[in-house]
Amino acid sequence: MSSTLNTNEGLPDPDPYDFTSDEASFKEGGKSHYNCPSCSTRFVSVEDLCTHLTNDPHCYAMPMPLAFRQSAAPGQSRDGRYHPESGSIYGFDHPNTFQRMKDHEYEAHREHNVYYPFADRDEWELAKFLSDNLNQGQMTRFLKLSWVRSEARKPPAYKSAPQLLTFMDALPKGPKWRCTTIQTEGYITTHPVHLIWRDALEVTQHIFGNPVFTNDMEFDPYEIYDNGEREFVLASDKTPVTRQTGGLEMHPTFLTIANIRSDIRMKATAHAWSCVAYMPIPQFVCHPDFASLLQARVWHQCMDIVFQNVKSAAATGTQMVDPVGNLRYSFTPLVAYTADLPEQQLIVCVSKNASPVTLAVQSQFGDGKLYPPRSGHLTIEALHKLCRRVDPWKVQHFQEEAKVLLLSGVQLPFWRDWRFSDPALFLAPDILHTLHKFFFDHVVKWCKEAVGADELDTRFRSQHKRIGTRHFGQGITHVVQMTGREHREIQRTIVPTIAGVVDTNFVRAVRALIDFIYQAQSPTFTPSSISTMNASLQEFHRFKGSITLAEARRGASGPIDHFQIPKLELLTSFGRAIPNIGAILQYTADVSERMLITHCKTPFERTSHQRSTFTQQIVRILDREDSARQFDLYAFLRSTNSSLNNLIVNEFDEVVDMDPAFAWIARIAPEDLSRFKGPQPVRNHFLKGLLSDDSVAAFHVTVSSDLVDKTAVFLTQHYMLPDFSQQLRSLIERVDGVGSRFQNRLLKVWYKFRLQLRSSLRPLLVMPSQQVQAYPPSDTHHLGNCDIVLLRTQGGDDIIAQVRMIFGLSMRGAGLPPALAQPFIYVQPFEIVAQPRDDPAVFMYRVKRQFVTGPDGTRVRAGMIFPLVDVTHAIELIPVYDVRANRGITSATCLELYDTFYLNNFSDKEWYHLTHTDSS
After folding, report:
1. Residue 784 CA: distances (Å) to CA of 311, 716, 727, 773, 778
2. Interacting residues of 145 by C-beta distance below 8 A, sequence separation 6+
3. Measured between alpha carbons, how far is residue 597 from residues 458, 485, 545, 614, 751 in Å?
4. Are strands 240-244 and 336-338 parallel, antiparallel or unpaired?
5. Higher confidence at residue 232 or residue 482?
6. Does the structure show a pLDDT above 90 at 626?
7. Kindly report the CA angle at 611 between 607 and 612, in degrees rounded to 5?
């Protein structure tokens, strides 16, 4: 067993430390032996039992990582191994985060009423609803309603908002909030400077021991070898990850631990992140040139305060209890810090014309070269020498000298004494800002200049609408600000959209950047996939001259002939970062952007909006919400006599995207799941839906069809499909012979079906289902509203086709043969007219509608009928627009009036991975 991140290497030997455990629960009748809780094997000492549980894979005290359960691809090998000296257990039966809630001062009352101080669950649920959704004035008005106060319906014990909030404050709390006044001696501020914070080590221990995450945590670094190549996955040991951002004059700092599985951490609704501080933003009464420097120094000072004990644990270790009650000796190096470019420069203490992650300077930002990393020891050494020459508190002189060294003027970076923490390693590439916002701020503008705003908007407006994707009905050029999701939606179609109107080298440069963006978001990497990603970036740099040649890169004073873009320089470091910190997708800032809303903007609306107190009010609101959410599950578990230890589940073969708290409730009391608030789990159609022959796809159609008891002749006319009746007749003859009694069987029709696949990137993961439409002609869609799919026939041929109808034979009457007792689709196929290699700029398949000669000698679209289960993917076609898009074509007629299309391999990341693998 070995790891890509060996966080134990060089750490102190744990033997000198005094480990304690509650041995009594493992003894039998006073005998001097201890039983394994998994296999019941007896051991003469706790140490022997700890070694057994640590090393025996069959009795390992935590779930097996998902990466180990994934099988190898056909014809390939897949091996995994743990690091041999990590994840050790030093004690048992210690209280986890939920069990520690029993130490509360009102525990004696909760022995009789688990919802104390509330009378029962109903009174508690009403209080939680009011506290979560109303301000104090609204609560009081509600509680004064005659309907609420009526004795006939048992009024709640709390009569006013203050009393209700007093009840809420009597619940068990998590890590305590503190307020520290920051002294700014020698510099005047307009208001006192207060740091509102929690001890980051207490927060880390609180998350680490939360049983909600029992089945989603990993404690051992490990590595995977796919066909001999090492996969880079997250491999850290009790590691806090912080995120700092700002908004509404607030700078919240969030923390999580990387032991929690990345797909869980990436969801704000999973509550794997906790806010540890609201950093002050002091307004100094001084020259503006110094104000930002003084603010930066205060920020680093505050970070020192918040993370002081975490730094100590990183140096010497500390005991922590995991979700199942095992005692572990933990170290807390900072493995990743997610921040946008200005924040990265704040963290590293460099000036704006220097890269925070490499030694590159502004004049080198656009050359595409990978410069040496900006290691922390280089910055500390430079600051040490500077402080010996100049007094740091002679701010003007110190700042001037610092700028010469490309430093910001902060003399005490918070990470200087955080063991094993180097900004060259822990500054994680930021997908949201460095990729998606860079794309919108620069690449989209280049395309707008080169294509023209009207032409670009026309092309986006006319593209076919698919369920589940954003359609830009008004175009994209008029929008000043978009969300990260909208940035991703434009990336999906930008390459085929600009093709034909700009130089092929321009298209190739843009396509190379989109390739890089998609490749950088892979959940796993190997050395060869990193090389491929780096090659995409280099391809952009080879062809970027076409962008300046088209004068598409412009500023306020005209064309710009260089690419000295700070975020572009950051891209060169992605390939170097991945082997150090794992797949960068897990560090996306999307979750913290969401938490800015939940931890700043939304609670701000429930405050008095007073500058001096609104932060304290927000902290109280959030503290109550956190306590209430945790108490809700805790009290429910106790009221149902369920264990406060979450059951370890290793038996499942596939994973659906489900909130971990919901998953726990679903296992012990599925009938009560609706009483809890949270994201709805992905519906798994593999359990009850139709399955493809190889079981890699599941299908769902509604029990009640949209049309019932229709004849083939009616549907031929209704759908305007002249050969449908003949195709259906041929199908029935192939199955049941000529003259089959089922030829006149009535038909039922669905307007849509759902297709669900397993992830090609993570085969154990069941993806959300996709809806495929096949609506008949209507007033809004004169030729129907029908999507495109990829089919694989019984003979193994792949067919790209448009689904025109989804139908089945009526089940009324004589029993149908199995081959006829299933849903079918009538499709109109396309033929491939060009391979990706034929067009290196766009690098997509080009397809054209397939036509046949009709009975009357006219040229008509070909039609075919296949079983629904032959569908393998829902795909997207983008018209080949050539030089100018047809202004008379809309999204409703796009697929009907164009004949030639690009098969869009950027339609989603799963499809991109599949097509990129096939065509490379």
Report:
1. 63, 13, 19, 10, 6
2. none
3. 34, 16, 40, 15, 38
4. parallel
5. 482
6. yes
7. 100
